[in-house]
Specification:
Blueprint: H1 4-7, H2 15-28, H3 49-73, E1 82-85, E2 89-90, E3 102-103, E4 108-111, H4 140-150, H5 156-160
Antiparallel strand pairs: 1-4, 2-3
Helix pairs in contact: 2-3
């Protein structure tokens, strides 16, 4: 049995680290919620993006790594899937303020012991842009539909309002 004190070790002392540590503690306490949501603000980097963005990604990486290790130690890693996404994408070209403006393509990371790792969809071309935006080959709702169907055992059409092709990052 992992004690609450054990669950606080190894997490970065950041807002995202504290939020994920709390979720791990709730999971280890067998709290009845099936879904948790946390926010890491600050990605709306219209200026000075290089240092801000890299710091945010470093904090996210450290916090996700800590929670995954914590869940593995607690024997819960096969029962948890983590979805990291951005509510908007960024444009490719840097603006005059050393940042980027809102764009079409946004990152989606799905992490967990049950997840079949890899890249899904075609790599966007940096030479074939539409109004300085990447052309995407997948709709992010395909990832949502797959998680709703295969992880939550619910009908994704009810939540998404339409049918989306499943991806194969989770067993059927």
């Amino acid at each position: 049995m992992v004690t609450p004190e054990d669950a606080t070790r190894g997490y970065p002392d950041t807002a995202i680290g504290k939020q994920l540590r709390m979720i791990s503690q709730l999971l280890q306490a067998d709290w009845p919620s099936r879904m948790y949501y946390v926010i890491q603000p600050g990605y709306d980097t219209h200026s000075s993006q290089l240092y801000v963005h890299s710091g945010l990604l470093r904090d996210l990486s450290a916090a996700v790594s800590s929670v995954q290790q914590d869940l593995r130690t607690a024997g819960l890693d096969e029962k948890v899937v983590t979805l990291c996404f951005s509510e908007f994408g960024r444009r490719v070209t840097e603006n005059d303020s050393e940042g980027t403006d809102h764009g079409t393509a946004g990152p989606v990371f799905i992490i967990g012991r049950q997840v079949r790792g890899g890249l899904y969809g075609a790599t966007p071309s940096l030479s074939e842009l539409t109004t300085d935006n990447l052309e995407t080959s997948l709709d992010f709702r395909q990832a949502y539909a797959t998680l709703i169907d295969r992880w939550l055992n619910a009908d994704p059409d009810l939540f998404l309002g339409a049918e989306f092709e499943m991806l194969y990052f989770l067993p059927a």
